[in-house]
Design a protein that fits this description.
Layout (H helix, E strand, L loop, with lengths): L2 E7 L2 E7 L5 H8 L18 E4 L2 E4 L12 E3 L1 H4 L3 H12 L9 H13 L8 H7 L11 H12 L3
Length: about 160
């Protein structure tokens, strides 16, 4: 049984139709028109669908829309418009950490979640690897991604 609910995404309220088992990824893409999060594996293993819910990185292919009622969802479209997300996006470009781009939005969102909970200059390579453990990339070889996250973590916030 579908019901209408308000989904707060990127500081904007969206009126969405939500079945009890409706996935956040589908609501973001088809109800909100935000296509940055991608369906990769559908099992939470690849991270292409990563967004943040109340600041925590989640696989939107595994989260039900009703679970997000009253919470704040952020996608790559919202995160990269200013602040930390804009710094992360710029550093990914500088480090050539983007190739095909399919995984990039999820990796950027995992990075934003990491940086939101740490102080500038305190992030270690271990922290970065743990934060990105749920994100797979078949194109870059990860070294440019690690460099971009490292540079982002050192930038003023």
């Amino acid at each position: 049984m579908t019901k209408r609910m308000t989904l707060r995404v990127n500081n904007t309220d969206y009126d969405v139709a939500a079945a009890p088992d409706g996935l956040l990824l589908d609501a973001l893409r088809y109800e909100c028109g935000l296509t940055g999060a991608k369906l990769g594996c559908g099992t939470g293993d690849c991270g292409a669908c990563t967004v943040t819910v109340d600041g925590e990185a989640v696989n939107s292919c595994l989260v039900y829309v009703p679970e997000c009622e009253g919470k704040s969802v952020e996608t790559v479209e919202g995160a990269t418009t200013n602040g930390v997300g804009a710094v992360v996006a710029a550093e990914f470009l500088k480090a050539d950490a983007v190739q095909c781009g399919f995984c990039t939005p999820g990796i950027v969102m995992s990075t934003c979640a990491l940086l939101a909970r740490t102080e500038p200059g305190t992030v270690t390579d271990t922290d970065i690897k743990e934060a990105l453990a749920g994100n797979l990339c078949r194109c870059t070889g990860y070294l440019p991604i690690l460099e971009a996250v490292r540079r982002s973590s050192e930038a003023p916030r």
